């Protein structure tokens, strides 16, 4: 029996551009911000990354779905993308780890997608015009007039100004016990955290306490954690004032801090820097970043549409009283700030994803750097709190008087 031919579908961008193709995944309509990801592998990790909430993701790799899907590689409990754009979906799944097809998961998750379009042309357009609102229409919605479809796209919410943390964060606190030699605990603010991040923290000896994004600074400090971690996540950092003030309070309590992606942007704001929206963002697993302290170039995994506005190649003073700050990493493609390092408080962050579940693993050392920072801080605190040993000369003098 011949396979059924997918129904027609159309991708509509808010500037009126239209690309006709075939339905892929669920049929219907979806609206979101159109972005592209340049990773040649790791589509499952991309789809299940909560940072993609509200976005229609285009894969620049032409052939998608050949290794299927499995439960082990899920970065969260579900697929988060608002829509999916591919050129050639695989007709056959061939991998010993596969448990089901990508198409099956897209249908089960209600993700409306499109295939069979020139993804290279769409990517070049987004690189020139910038990320923009878009819609995918298939099934009955493909029959809507061009004007109706465009109006639906333009009535969608823009990513700038959106606070999406509540949509992706855990609703209840939970814990992941340390799997390495225990060194303490880390409070993780879940703004869209990935499973592999939690696993890497546990492997470094942390009892990982994952907290909902509604938690207060007072509740975090009551836990007396060895450190604080802010995760990746979707949305505009400029719309997360609560999390910025929370971070300032905990930093003033001298708790060591590490943030990635959204956590880097929030550290930037907490220190007094601004943030801004990138034209089309960095998304993929092949972004070159330089570590200023070593001069080493790392190939890194990114997923961000906003960045911190901080000066390169100089030490700045925090406008919020946290001392000296330097840009520790920046992107070699466009000089975008990719990391911050505080010189007077125990805090640092990076804009990219050091867990890199789909690879590469150049930035895994950052988890070790975090562990070492916490250990050094713990040792310093213990030394300060230890009682002073009696002075030997005073004992000798006392003994002489008694004799």
TrEMBL record:
Pfam families: CPSase_sm_chain (PF00988), GATase (PF00117). Residues 7-137 form the Carbamoyl-phosphate synthase small subunit N-terminal domain. Residues 391-403 have a biased composition (Acidic residues). Residues 378-390 have a biased composition (Low complexity). Pathway: Pyrimidine metabolism; UMP biosynthesis via de novo pathway; (S)-dihydroorotate from bicarbonate: step 1/3; Amino-acid biosynthesis; L-arginine biosynthesis; carbamoyl phosphate from bicarbonate: step 1/1. It catalyses: L-glutamine + H2O = L-glutamate + NH4(+); hydrogencarbonate + L-glutamine + 2 ATP + H2O = carbamoyl phosphate + L-glutamate + 2 ADP + phosphate + 2 H(+). One of its GO terms (molecular function) is carbamoyl-phosphate synthase (glutamine-hydrolyzing) activity. The keyword Methyltransferase does not apply. SMART domains: CPSase_sm_chain. It is an enzyme of class 6 (ligase). L-glutamine binds at residues 51, 233, 235, 262, 265, 303, 305-306. InterPro entries: Anth_synth/Amidotransfase, CarbamoylP_synth_ssu, CarbamoylP_synth_ssu_N, CarbP_synth_ssu_N_sf, Class_I_gatase-like, CPSase_GATase1, GATASE. The active site is at residues 261, 353, 355. It comes from the Bacteria. Its EC number is 6.3.5.5. Keywords: Amino-acid biosynthesis, Arginine biosynthesis, ATP-binding, Glutamine amidotransferase, Ligase, Nucleotide-binding, Pyrimidine biosynthesis. One of its GO terms (biological process) is L-arginine biosynthetic process. Belongs to the CarA family. Small subunit of the glutamine-dependent carbamoyl phosphate synthetase (CPSase). CPSase catalyzes the formation of carbamoyl phosphate from the ammonia moiety of glutamine, carbonate, and phosphate donated by ATP, constituting the first step of 2 biosynthetic pathways, one leading to arginine and/or urea and the other to pyrimidine nucleotides. The small subunit (glutamine amidotransferase) binds and cleaves glutamine to supply the large subunit with the substrate ammonia. NCBIfam families: CPSaseIIsmall, PRK12838.1. This is Carbamoyl phosphate synthase small chain.
């Amino acid at each position: 029996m011949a396979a059924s031919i997918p129904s027609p579908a159309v991708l509509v961008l808010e500037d009126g551009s239209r690309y006709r193709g075939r339905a892929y995944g669920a049929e219907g309509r979806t609206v979101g911000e159109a972005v592209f990801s340049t990773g040649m592998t790791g589509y499952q990790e991309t789809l299940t990354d909560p940072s993609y909430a509200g976005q229609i993701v285009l894969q620049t790799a032409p052939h998608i779905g050949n290794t299927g899907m499995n439960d082990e590689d899920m970065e969260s409990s579900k697929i988060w993308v608002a829509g999916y754009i591919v050129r050639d979906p695989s007709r056959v799944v061939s991998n010993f780890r596969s448990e089901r097809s990508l198409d099956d998961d897209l249908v089960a998750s209600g993700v409306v997608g499109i295939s069979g379009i020139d993804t290279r042309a769409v990517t070049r357009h987004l690189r020139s015009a910038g990320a923009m609102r878009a819609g995918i229409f298939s099934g009955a919605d493909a029959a809507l007039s061009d004007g109706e479809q465009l109006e639906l796209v333009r009535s969608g919410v823009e990513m700038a100004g959106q606070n999406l943390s509540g949509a992706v964060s855990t609703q209840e606190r939970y814990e992941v016990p340390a799997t390495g030699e225990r060194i303490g605990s880390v409070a993780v603010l879940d703004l869209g955290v990935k499973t592999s991040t939690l696993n890497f923290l546990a492997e470094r000896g942390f009892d990982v306490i994952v907290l909902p994004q509604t938690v207060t600074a007072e509740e975090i400090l009551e836990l007396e954690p060895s450190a604080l971690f802010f995760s990746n996540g979707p949305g505009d950092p400029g719309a997360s004032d609560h999390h910025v003030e929370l971070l300032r309070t905990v930093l003033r309590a001298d708790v060591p801090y590490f943030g990635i992606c959204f956590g880097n942007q929030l550290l930037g704001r907490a220190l007094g820097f601004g943030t801004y929206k990138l034209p089309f963002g960095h998304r993929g697993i092949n972004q070159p970043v330089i570590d200023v302290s070593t001069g080493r170039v790392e190939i890194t995994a990114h997923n961000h549409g906003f960045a911190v506005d901080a000066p390169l190649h100089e030490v700045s003073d925090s406008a919020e009283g946290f001392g000296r700050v330097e840009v520790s990493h920046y992107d070699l493609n466009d000089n975008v700030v990719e990391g911050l390092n505080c010189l007077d408080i125990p805090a640092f962050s990076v804009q990219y994803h050091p867990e890199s579940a789909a690879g590469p693993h150049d930035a895994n050392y950052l988890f070790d750097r975090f562990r070492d920072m916490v250990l050094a801080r713990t040792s310093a605190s213990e030394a300060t709190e230890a009682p002073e040993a009696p002075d030997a000369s005073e004992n000798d003098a006392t003994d002489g008087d008694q004799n």
